[in-house]
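Worked example 4.2. Below are the chains of a multi-component assembly; read each line carefully before continuing.
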Amino acid sequence: MIVLGIDVGGTSIKGAAIRDNGEVLDRFSVDMDRDATPEVTFGGLAELANKFIKEHKYDEPISGIGLGIPGLINKKTGEVASSPNMPKWINFNIKNYIEERTHLPVRIVNDASAAALGEARFGVGKQYNYLVMITLGTGVGGGIVFDKQLIDGNEGKGAQLGHGLVEVNGRLCGCGRKGCLEAYASATALIKETKKSLEEHPESLLHEAVKEVGKVDARAAFIAARKGDKEGQRLVDEYVFYLGEGLLNFCNLLRPEIIVLSGGVANEGEYLISRLESYLSTRGYGMKNSPKVVIRQAVLGYDSGKIGAACLFFE
Amino acid sequence: MIVLGIDVGGTSIKGAAIRDNGEVLDRFSVDMDRDATPEVTFGGLAELANKFIKEHKYDEPISGIGLGIPGLINKKTGEVASSPNMPKWINFNIKNYIEERTHLPVRIVNDASAAALGEARFGVGKQYNYLVMITLGTGVGGGIVFDKQLIDGNEGKGAQLGHGLVEVNGRLCGCGRKGCLEAYASATALIKETKKSLEEHPESLLHEAVKEVGKVDARAAFIAARKGDKEGQRLVDEYVFYLGEGLLNFCNLLRPEIIVLSGGVANEGEYLISRLESYLSTRGYGMKNSPKVVIRQAVLGYDSGKIGAACLFFE
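Applying the procedure described above to all two chains together yields the following structure tokens:
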């Protein structure tokens, strides 16, 4: 079976023809206008899909189109209720709109869940049955894949892994709730804390790190910490503490075999992972008398969402 | 199909022959000695099962034995790793031990997960596809049942719903972690807070409530609150606040259609449920743009665990 897997993002729409063994055959990409109406965006996407299908012939026809959508979707009806970065997407039925224009079956899923499904089926989670993936980017998202199937709750609206508590009445989260993991473990949160440190500590190597990167981003704290800078290390320790507590929550509530980290901050790789593993191993309940939970970085990069979206058609 | 469903508890072992339509045919019960070796306990249980089967003939034979076990189990191997109240249960294979003695297939599951499965298949959750059950007793346990199947993670060790955070570095939990929901929403936690109030507030109606109940238990705060007592209301408000935040976590991470409350504190019924529903409805993310999550009290009582354990054999 070959399916078009499409990852609809805030700046571009990226798709590919994907074979049911996970092979990415041919890719396509188009810019995304966040302020466009959904009719314009998904009408254009349908045209693009039709053109791609016409121009690419394989040993079997394309069987369907899977879409990873950034926003609150209903995977049963194929509707997007709203999307934080696409103001005009309000209660729009993506599935019907594209099916009418391509005459192919369409399935939709939350974009973070799609990426988790891709990693679970064909990425770093291939040999594991119980996977939780967490994306450490502008926000914190994630997906749960048990026995190679998504666990995403009613209408596919679950697995909002950034919006569980770490601290009641804590930092205000973008979602309106106080104390969510996202308010502590997103790149945005780390940047905010880094800015505070920069102001308060003119002596810190953070300033040098920011010059190296060219802007204040989530890498600065890690660069300074690697060089032994006190403030950098404090920022990283605090980040590991909160993220570690968030991961312990996933261990207790879900008991995965593997936790996959993706998104910008996950690029800190082993430096971050070894600290998280060491944090988890010293905290009782999450690990005691339980099989070890391994932590790994995602391996499929930008393809994970496309592959995962295509997987909606693969058994 | 008819299966023996058995709920192994801290004070007694309760079982029944259960038909695959959920019907409870005949029950049996025997006292539990917490300090006995697992050989004694499960040897006795196997004998009891054999005796029951000999004495009860139905239109079809008993197909298997399902067991709900209080403790850290491995449902794949059938082993219990440890159990908080049964000190001699260390790495004992329950499944093999009972299969050898009854010549029937045996499956085991965590007891709280069993109860959730029972309610989901044949209790208050019958018409829902996405159920989370939380047990508010001495501790806080629970189960997750999506599409009528248990979501209990690697080896069946997941769904420790009492051991997610509400407050990082908060109250010390029995599990060794700080800030778990159990340390705020268990009957034990409420009793502890009630005792503090009793000492500090000689004028409070809590004292009268305690006399009425005959001891300091979790009901006292609710009795006083219903009578308009300030301290009683403060205790209930605080309890609802933390439990409400815990339920919001389940909403965001799992997105159930229904949350089922069981255990002693759940007997406060509509008084508690209406306050929780009102708390959730005023907090953004968990409900906004999402289908409403209903909260209900469990209906199967002590049968839920037996029925759920038997369900391990029903498709």
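Take a moment to check your reading of the output against the notes. Residues 2-104 of chain A form a domain with the Nucleotidyltransferase; domain 5 fold (CATH 3.30.420.40). The CA atoms of residues 260 and 296 of chain A lie 5 Å apart.
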